[in-house]
Amino acid sequence: MNKKVILFLLIASLAVFLLFAGCGEQDDVIELHFATFWPGTDFQVSEGHEAWMNDIEERTDGQVRFVMHAGEALLGGREIYEGVVAGSADLGTTCPSYTPGMFPVTEAFELTGMQNPNALAASMTVNEGYKVLKEEGLMEEYDDVKVLMFWATGPGDVMTTSPVESLDDVEGMEMRVVGGSVSAMEELGVTPVSMPMSESYIALDSRIVEGILAPTDTLKGFGLAEVVDYVTKTPYLYNMVFMKVMNQQKWDSLPPDVQEVIEEVSEEYVMEYGKLRADHTIEGLEYGKQEHGIEVLELTSEEESIWLEKIKPVVEEWIEKTEDAGLPGREIVDTVRELDEKFADEHGDY
User: If you average pLDDT over residues 165-179, what whole number do you get?
Assistant: First the structure.
C-alpha cells in the first residue's frame, strides 16, 4: 500500500472519528425550550430569565442549554400552562390568573387587603405559601406539572387615560383587570376586562379599555407609558402571581444532578426576581413621569376610606365561594395572611 493511500485512510478515519465524537458531544446536551409571554426586551426576560438560564447552564457545565421563546412566539399567555402540560414547550412562565378557575387555591395570594408592601415580600409569600399548602394537600391544581418556582408583582396601581381621583371617576370605566382584583374592582363599579398583559397596549391605544390595574414596571417594559396619562396609587388593590413550571415527563427524564441544580437555582431566584420587580416598579414609574409626562395622583384619606370600605366584603365572599367548592377557604386565607405578615416584616423596607 503506497504512502498516499495510507495518508488518505488516516485522514478519512480521523474525519469519521471527529464526526462521531461531535455527535456524541451534542447528544449529551439537554436542550430545553422555554416559553414566556414577556417580550424579550422586558426586564423579566433580559435581566431575570436570562440570568436564571445562564446560572443553570453554568452550574451544569453546559449540560443544559435553553432556547428562549419570548413574547408569545411559541405559546400565548393563556396557552403556556396547557402547552407545558402537553409538551409543546419544555417549560414556561405565565400567570395562573390568565386561566380563571383553573387555580382556585392560588387565587388567595391575589386577594385584596394584604400588607403586600413590595414585590420581594409578595414573591416570598407566594413561593413559601405554595410549599405549606402543598404539604397540606391543597395544591392539587399543579399536579400535572413540575413546579419550579413562584414569584409576584407586589402592589399595582390604577393607570388610566383620564384622571381618577374619586370613586365617581372609575364607576362604569372599562379596565383591564385580572386575578384576585376582579371582584374588588367590580365592587368599585369598574367593568373588568380580562386579557393577558401582552394585549393591553393595543387595548388601551384603541380605547377598547380606558385603564389598567397593574404594577408600574409595565409603563416601560410593555410600553404602557405611551398609552396612559395618569397613575393613581392604589397598592391595596393588586398582586399578581407568576409561576415557572416544567413538563412533568421532561423533568422526570433529567439526570438527578441536573434536577438538583435547577431546583437550587430556582429557589435562589424567588428572592432575585422579587428584588428585580421591586426595583423596576420604581424605575417604571420614574420613566413614565420623566419620558412621557405621566401624572401621579393620590386619593385623599377620606376617599381612600370609601374605597377600602367598598372592597371589604371581597375576601369573605371568596372564602364562602371556595368553601362551597369543597376547599378550606378560611384556612387558606389564614395561611396567606400569616405569611404576608411574616415577609412584610422581613422585607417591607426593601
Answer: 94
Taking only the tens place, the pLDDT of each residue in 270-323 is 999 999 999 999 999 999 999 999 999 999 999 999 999 999 999 999 999 999
pLDDT, position 235: 87
- Contact by Cβ (8 Å): 303, 166: yes
CB atoms within 10 A of CB 131: 12
Distance (Å, rounded) from C-alpha 77 to C-alpha 240?
14
Q: Which residue has the cell 426586551?
A: 41
Cα separations in angstroms, 290 against 223, 225, 234, 281, 283: 14, 10, 21, 14, 10
Q: Which domains does the chain have, with CATH numbers?
A: 157-239+282-347 (3.40.190.170)
Distinct helix (H) and strand (E) counts, the chain: 14, 11
For helices 329-347 and 119-135, the axis angle rounded to 10 degrees is 140
Task: Look up residue 108 and give its amino acid.
Answer: A
For the beta carbon of residue 135, count every other beta carbon within 10 angstroms: 9
Q: Is the pLDDT score of 205 beyond 90?
A: yes
For residue 231, which phi and psi values (nearest 5 degrees)? -125, 120
Global pTM? 0.84
